[in-house]
Amino acid sequence: MKIHHLNCVAIQSPTGDNAIGHCVLIETAAELILLDAGISSIDLAQPSLHFSKALIQQIGLNLTEIRSAKEQILALGLDPNCVTTVVLTHLDFDHSSGLLDFPQATVHIGVEELASFVQGNPRYLSFVLEHQPKIEVYAASPEHWLGFEARYLSIHSDLKMALIPLFGHTIGHCGITFEVDKQVYFYIGDAYYLRAELTDPHHPVHELTATRAVNNTQRIETLNRLMTFVKDHPEVCVFGYHDAAEFDDELGAF
Ligand SMILES: [Zn+2]
How many A from CA of 98 to the centre of ligand 1? Predict the structure, then answer.
């Protein structure tokens, strides 16, 4: 089993930090598994198809300097058609537009997140599921993983993987835990934008994450739990979606 780290988003954030879109590709004997999907090749080629100029400006999206997950998978010498599982932390378009490049994949997601999307929460862009992929949803579970509720995924691969509710950023936002070569990973999506949120209470990014959170009280609770978790479990590799420094660390480690 092999892990590839793919950067599939470029954002010039209002705080001045350049944000990325840290997707994870897991190569198993049977299939390719993608965790979060970045911006699709279709949207990179023709941004106006799904994105208004105002949205691109508001987010600070840079659509010219980035390659889609599909393109990066091809560059690795792998077949994008072998991506049969995509696990999503949540449905914000910067994490889910890439689904368009993998119409054959089953999408795995928390039930609350899909419900919020289907109910028409205006933060989402409906095009990301318009191709009607097969979707597996995961409801609240009595199982636990290192103190968190764990919703273990039903995937064919021998990889054990679970969605971990980290609510607040969105109604059903989940992290994803998995283990490869005896290393345990905890991919926390947008539970923080920058890891500095765990250590620096005065970092300007807090204001941005608070603004983008559906439920800020829940977001802060989640953040506090993660602060405790990283102290208690230094053996677990914790990383999120938008922090460029974490991405560089991961690339350096492999
Ligand atoms: Zn995001």
Answer: 13
